[in-house]
Amino acid sequence: MNQRVFQNIFFISKIRAIICVCSLFSLNGFSQTSGNTPKINMAVETYSYLKGQNAALQRISMQFPSLKDNVEALQKNSVMLFSRAEKNIEHILEKELEKSEYNRLKNQIRSFLSKFKDPIQKKKHAEDFLDKVKERSLVKDDSQISKALLSFAYHDKPHQEITDGHLKTFTTKGHPKAVKSTVTIPIPKSWKAEDAEMPETIQQFTSFNGNGSEKILIVIYEPDHGFVLNESVVPQMLDPQTDLIRTETITIDGKQGIMAECEQILDPPKNKIKIRMLQFMVAAEKKLYCFQGSIGPAASSENLEIQLKKFEPLFRLIVSKAQIEN
After folding, report:
1. Phi, psi (rounded to 5 degrees) for 11
2. Does 297 sit behind a cis peptide bond, omega within 30 degrees of 0 on the bond before it?
3. How far, in Å, are 34, 76, 209, 277, 318 from residue 27 at the CA level?
4. Chain-centre distance of CA 28, in angstroms?
5. Are 182 and 173 in contact (CB under 8 A)?
6. For residue 212, which of 197, 234, 192, 232 has the smallest C-alpha distance?
7. Does the pLDDT of residue 48 top 80, yes or no?
8. Helices (H), strands (E): how many in the chain?
9. What are the CA-CA distances from residue 177 to residues 197, 200, 301 (Å)?
10. Across all residues in the chain, what is the average pLDDT?
11. 17 vs 142, which has greater pLDDT?
């Protein structure tokens, strides 16, 4: 059994009827054998978790009428997280899975839930469960299930994760790659910080707790002496495999900069892939600061414009709150 799940559902040894919330994570086998992406595997796990949780809440409401109002209040107050995440996951799975595969998943979930018919032994166990669900709805911890819930709840409008207060503040202060510069930006709580290979990239963050195809990078360059950042020099900064789509004058921490939308074509051994990105750049104190939000890599035939537009408000929000100190 997954140790993470065992820790999250802390009282499973006390209440057999609610153990389905944990057991449904064994549906990992469903996603792993289907050859899906890590993001889809994550969606299957989270969807199973939510279905198990819903079933447990229904069981509590039926077996303990005195707790029915508590259950209804909890469901009402947590609709922004749980219901929104479930709805968005259903849209994702309907799009990404074959119809037969999606139906098989739903049938597996129903089959698992139907096996747990024993009554809850004590009312205290039900009350403990309600407290745990309430705590989970506040997503104050950094557990994988909390990050998964946030990822899917804000899948349709990623920028709202920050505006609703689910964020972490990242600073380069003390970072070995940014000795003489300090950059501070907000990052969605569900995004995972990862080390970057390029020496100029201070830090990168990946959506869906590291399972998504969206990234945010902080890059600091030391340009040649006399470098001046303006729209005319942007095409010269790009490699031959990158097409410039548009530029725009912006402001970063009170300093005038440039935003460039680009699409890069990469040619690995098997198939061509591409990345679409927004690069927000500003020059200050002999350094060029770049905040890059990107989508991909994806097949070269895929249109990434719609996906980039969905994440553009998030990328712009992060840059609008960036602080730079030299």
Report:
1. -115, 25
2. yes
3. 11, 28, 20, 35, 36
4. 19
5. yes
6. 192
7. yes
8. 12, 10
9. 11, 7, 36
10. 87
11. 142
